[in-house]
Amino acid sequence: MARSNSTLIKPFIKWVGGKRQLLDVIYKNMPTDGYSTYCEPFLGGGALFLNEQPQKAIVNDENKELINTYKVIQRNLYELIEALKVHNEKNSEDYFYDVREWDRKPGYKKCSDVERAARLIYLNKTCFNGLYRVNSSGFFNTPYGRYKDPNIVNKHGLKALNTYFNEADIKFMTGDFEDSVKYIRSGAFVYFDPPYVPLSPTSNYTGYTGGGFDEGDQTRLRNLCDRLHSRGVKFLLSNSNVPFVRELYTNQDYKIEIVGAKRAINADGKKRGEVEEVLIRNYDIQKRIKKL
Q: Which residues of 199-215 are buried (b: 16+ CB within 10 A; e: fewer)?
């Protein structure tokens, strides 16, 4: 179950597909009778996870640099803050591109966990629109953002995260989404927020890890949901409101709700607007008191 929540605990990075704008409607679709363990196989920025602040959680992401950063916040907070201070003092367009090139050089493998985590946060805070994107080789390739005063060293926020990560029973994993739910039992709750099925051929975004997430992966995810359902595990899933997704989940008696979500990231500001998403769950809910 969730503990008494701290309002200081928020995502430390901006992530494509983040759920901060949808927290209210997602919360209304969560189990009303609680859960034993919280599990999120596609963690990303962790908006729902950090809003819930469960006492026991298993969270996973295929992006190794991201999960390394979560672990560093948990284990090496003060070293991370000092490293971020250095980035903050040196921040400029030239410095940004120099840091961005680190992972293209052989020496990057020798960087410490703290150095890699500080790099990820620095690049995320200073790159264009906070867009985490890698190319097919897995190299970060978003341009400089030209912000006047980016919040690179958020000491209070990072300290709050560190406290929570050490007080609660949280397991951080990096790997395939199926691995993170292998051993969860009936009574657990799983929130799936996979890379979305593109709304059109030109809107396909697969830049989280350099790999991508195709229709075969979406079908594999549906099959996993079916197995969890048969084991008595509750799940809630977000995805695009497209026929392919709706058809995937019609064989079971799942509840499908269409919701509006704001598109926060687009190179053209005029194209940032509301799009339809679906929330799919395998349980009934009762009316609950608003939490947020």
A: eeeeeeeebbbbeebee
Segment holding 40, helix H or strand E: strand 38-40
Q: What is the mean pLDDT of the chain?
A: 89
Report the predicted TM-score, pTM, of the whole model to 2 decimal places: 0.90
Residue 54: which of 121, 127, 126, 5 has the closest Cα?
A: 5
List, in order, residues 6 or more apart from 83 with CB less than 8 Å away.
114, 115, 117, 118
Only one residue has tokens 């897995």, namely 138
Pairing of strands 274-281, 255-262: antiparallel
Say how far residue 216 (Cα) sits from the centre of its chain. 21
Q: How far apart are CA 240 and CA 261, in angstroms?
A: 10
pLDDT tens sequence across 97-139:
999 999 999 899 899 999 999 999 999 999 998 888 888 788 8
Task: Encode pLDDT of 208-234 as tens digits.
Answer: 554 578 999 999 999 999 999 999 999
Token pair, residue 33, equals: 């009778």
Nearest-angstrom CA–CA distance, 147 and 145: 6
Contact by Cβ (8 Å): 216, 96? no
